[in-house]
Design goal:
It contains nine helices and eleven strands. The chain is of the alpha/beta class. The protein has a single domain (about 15-255), classed as Metallo-dependent phosphatases (Purple Acid Phosphatase, chain A, domain 2, 4-Layer Sandwich), CATH 3.60.21. The longest helix has 18 residues, at about 25-45.
Length: about 260
């Protein structure tokens, strides 16, 4: 049952949403979760289904290029909407700005650059100028266009989906891009209801964090081996998680509310 005091939120009748937390280059977990979602959606019956990737598809994990290409293919197969994260912003800015490239590398961009086929020995020896030229040449134009087209905020029924969070007390239409991609406080500690329940990633927690006014589903895939999706339909909430273990990856499911 829904915990006392939590705001009621629901999706319109006939709609189903799967929101996936920060993937960060973990193509292996992403593939497992895609298969689980496809199976779950088929088993759940007919609905207008939307998949929302909450941003930070890239950096830190070993195969950002593969994640981008898989997301692009999935988008051709079903309705997949992608939100911009702060790491997509850094990815794009690093193509043209040397200082942004340095920042990008410090926060997981090295793994992304290597995923585009640049050899480690060349990476180590390259000057910043040369590295930027190599990076720019390695990233396909369609990848740039794909990431540049990511949305900032999605509203469906009683939910708002963003990467990082929102500025409390500010309407959805007036939210600043910087906050949507980067905010932590005062959003995380804000206890009063927002206009909608906010579904977000960006801030890593050990498990799904349902605070009533917001639900955080970034379970740190790149370092914990757990990639989480929140499934929403009507007033129900549950999650699917691709979890890496010693005997391979398993899918775990848990009902949050009903």
């Amino acid at each position: 049952m829904r915990k006392k005091g939590k705001p009621e939120a629901s999706l319109p009748a006939g709609q189903r949403v799967y929101a996936i937390g920060d993937i960060h280059g973990r193509l292996d977990l992403f593939e497992e979760l895609i298969e689980a979602i496809e199976n779950d959606d088929a088993d759940a019956g007919e609905a207008e289904t939307t998949v929302i990737l909450l941003g930070d598809l890239v950096d830190r994990g070993p195969d950002s290029r593969g994640v981008i290409e898989r997301a692009m293919r999935w988008q051709q197969e079903r309705k997949v909407r992608c939100l911009a994260g702060n790491h997509e912003q850094m990815f794009l800015e690093a193509l043209d700005k040397k200082q942004s490239l340095r920042h990008f590398i410090r926060f997981g961009g090295k793994e992304t650059i290597l995923s585009y086929g640049i050899e480690k020995s060349i990476y180590r020896e390259a000057s910043m100028e040369t590295l930027q030229e190599l990076y720019r040449a390695a990233v396909p134009k369609e990848h740039v266009e794909f990431l540049d087209g990511f949305e900032r905020l999605i509203e469906i029924g009683g939910y708002i989906f963003v990467h990082a969070g929102i500025q409390p007390g500010v309407s959805a239409a007036e939210q600043k891009r910087k906050d949507l991609l980067w905010i932590r406080e005062p959003f995380l500690s804000y206890a009063k209801p927002h206009s909608h329940v906010v579904i977000h990633g960006h801030t890593i927690t050990d498990k799904v964090e349902d605070r009533g006014n917001r639900i955080g589903i970034d379970t740190g895939a790149y370092m914990t081996g757990r990639l989480t999706a929140l499934a929403l339909e009507g007033t129900t909430r549950r999650y699917l998680a691709a979890v890496e273990g010693k005997k391979g990856t398993k899918i775990k499911e848990k009902v949050l509310t009903e």
